[in-house]
DNA sequence: TTGAAAACTGGCCGATCGGTCAGGAAGCTG
DNA sequence: CAGCTTCCTGACCGATCGGCCAGTTTTCAA
């Protein structure tokens, strides 16, 4: 058995690429399977041949970011509290900047997040990372870390033509004003 | 001529009340006119009798917050830069906390904000208030003020059972860490 | 009390949604 | 070449969407 059929992967990838672009531009709910199919140059039925429903397309779009985040969590777990905090500030920022499209998509799904089990893991990991970033169990610092992450995600949503590096620097600067070292 | 017909205003108000509740809970796009009508105890046709389409319902939901914000802008315009900054920090926080439901609704509409002229004024005023909050024209401080407002709006979206006063205190605390006095 | 205006509604419309299915086209293997 | 699997599609489905309209009920001033 072939590990992957080239044709299958090519179409699949194009669907995910276009779905990402559209979700980011118009929001998950406002994009139809027909929109995705047209953009990817195939029929709606083909989209549903490759993915088991619209939520599965969303899951595929989110998957790379979710995997990267899970990797970050795994690393952070091996560090001391102070190290984990510094690690979280730097790498969570990186992740949000690089995957800023995903950040945008997630925001649009928040109101119905309970009905989307396919992204529950991503969200849970994000909250875990926020806890690492706080650096302490003090409720105020935890709340401020959440505040910081909200600002971070918001900034990555509307980058205003900033380059990755400019955006990363801005976010890290803001985080260091908000977050107290452990 | 009667200034207002009681029956008309009563129904209108109930529709707006229920629409607000539903938009906040499930997002603008996920709420149908039928949902609003059922919650308000009338028919979908009645909703369309009082409001010229679904966007008009949204505009009515947002109107009180928009009016309050416009009033804030008018006051801030009469102040010195330093006074306006302090004014913005305190009263923009208040506004976001009191109208937190509206904050939630707006977030859901952001991806299609260009197609919603009825909320363009609100958004423009919010950005103006953000500029006052920065306290200087330095691009970095402007960006940080935007970052702060993103955090503010995010915190008001998911209040986690906090009281108005707790939420207001948290936001003001975070803002004072992020914002440099003019 | 009465009649016109205001408030309201059931039923219908075209469009679009996510999703299904039978079957055609393409590609690989013998 | 034949035959099987994979890939893909047009046509169709039931549901629901926002919106419209003709007509009924309610309100209220004269």
TrEMBL record, chains A, B:
<keyword id="KW-0805">Transcription regulation</keyword>
<dbReference type="InterPro" id="IPR001647">
    <property type="entry name" value="HTH_TetR"/>
</dbReference>
<dbReference type="InterPro" id="IPR009057">
    <property type="entry name" value="Homeodomain-like_sf"/>
</dbReference>
<dbReference type="InterPro" id="IPR050109">
    <property type="entry name" value="HTH-type_TetR-like_transc_reg"/>
</dbReference>
<protein>
    <submittedName>
        <fullName>TetR family transcriptional regulator</fullName>
    </submittedName>
</protein>
<dbReference type="GO" id="GO:0000976">
    <property type="term" value="F:transcription cis-regulatory region binding"/>
</dbReference>
<feature type="domain" description="HTH tetR-type">
    <location>
        <begin position="9"/>
        <end position="69"/>
    </location>
</feature>
<dbReference type="GO" id="GO:0003700">
    <property type="term" value="F:DNA-binding transcription factor activity"/>
</dbReference>
<keyword id="KW-0238">DNA-binding</keyword>
<keyword id="KW-0804">Transcription</keyword>
<feature type="DNA-binding region" description="H-T-H motif">
    <location>
        <begin position="32"/>
        <end position="51"/>
    </location>
</feature>
<dbReference type="Pfam" id="PF00440">
    <property type="entry name" value="TetR_N"/>
</dbReference>
